[in-house]
Amino acid sequence: MSPPDLPTAPPRRSSADRFIDLTAKLSLALGALGIVWCLFQLLMVVLLGRLDIVALMQRDGLVVPDWIQWTDAHAFSLSVALLLFCIAFVVVCWAMLKRHEWGRIGFIVFLLLVALGNFAFIPVMDSMFNSMLTIFPADFLSSPQGAEMRAQMAFSRWSLLITLLVSSLAIAALHGWLAIKLQRRDVRDLFH
Where are the domains of the chain? Predict the structure, then answer.
């Protein structure tokens, strides 16, 4: 009587295969968190939509910058657009996990869009800081407290802009590295 055959170990997966699995699974988790956030954001937009924040600010005599009025008027549409973006990202990540070529290409497109979007957000934040000063009355801005507040806002503005620039560069470098790695021959060969 011969001993039973031992089960064979599964073949060792390539580093490219492990890279794709890890990247797709982490991205799926981030996409799912994005969807949860967007649903929460939509809930807040609907609940706070009954509270007209712009009208409250105007009633208190504050000048409401155009960007706040535009964002308030389009809050629901912006939230839905972000939700659709996150859903599309999850679909692309799932396709990449299943080794569909369109998932790999779609993932690279998302990497580039997010990297560019981070840089596009920098001037938006700069404009936001500049327009925040228009909310305050001129007599307050010319007072000593107003001068102190303007100095604090200037420091905060530059701190934010530098942080955004550094983080945008870091994310662009990471996304560029991922895009290049997803273009390597050993990775592309795993997709159909």
Answer: 15-188
Total residues belonging to the chain: 192
Cα separation, 160 vs 164, in Å, equals 6
Mean pLDDT of the chain: 92
Take residue 69 and report the two structure tokens written for it. 């009025």
**Stretch (H or E) spanning 121:** helix 101-132
> In angstroms, rounded to a whole number, what is the distance separating the alpha carbons of residues 67 and 18?
45
As given in the structure block, the two tokens for residue 105 are 């290409």
Give the model confidence (pLDDT) of 35-68 as tens digits.
999 999 999 998 887 778 888 888 887 778 888 8
Burial of residue 78 (CB within 10 Å: 0-12, 13-18, 19+) is middle
